[in-house]
Hints:
Blueprint: H1 6-21, H2 28-47, E1 54-63, E2 66-72, H3 75-88, H4 104-114, E3 119-127, H5 132-137, E4 147-151, H6 157-167, E5 179-180, E6 184-188, H7 202-213, E7 218-222
Pfam families: DUF5983
InterPro entries: DUF5983 (IPR046025)
Organism: Novosphingobium sediminicola
Amino acid sequence: MTDNSLHDFRALLARARAALETPADLDSHAMAFLAEDIALAEQGLAHSPMLWPLDIHVGVIEHKEGLNIHVSLDRPALEEQIAEFCREWWPDIRDPRKAEDLSDADVIEIYFDRHDSECLIIEQIRIDPPSATAVCATQPALENGRYCVLSTAHLSAATAELLDLWSSWPPGDRPLDIAAAVHGWFVPTRLRDESGAAPLPEDLAALITFGREKGFAYVLVDCDGDTVDDLPLSNW
């Protein structure tokens, strides 16, 4: 998603539904972009339950005992809450009409027009989602994004040469949608169509499986990356 608006979130859901209904309409790159956008939305929801501004309706009743504060997501629901208060104290205004026979809006208007010592204030307030800075400040300082960084030591020299070769090919000709980095490669972890495709080197397949099982969309294989005990090491 380009931003966190509700409109964009709905558009993302529509794209996901279309991909499920007609998967043949999306090529591998479009599917990868969709998966990445879904991952970003998922990550945003993990950091904060609210991704977009929220408008709420607040009613404050001032009476002899203090204040009543009512909050709702829409005006009719707020009026229903306030009207319940007015009907409870309807005898105070000595109005001959039955409050139960009147609409919520009429009950509220009559009650506060005729009550000398009570007043009502209703406002609509917008609550903005937490800023990216505030969200990050509450999260541990860990590199836990959609990709992990692993050392090239987990690949053999032959596999590294193969990745260099694939990176020089046109994107449509590559066995994997890899991308060359400064000191390594970005390798996607999603399952690939094995029909008619040559098997991947064992060390590369193991590295991809590791990244996918850990929940990452990509593995950045880098000479300065970390090593893990779950993968074999090569000396070269």
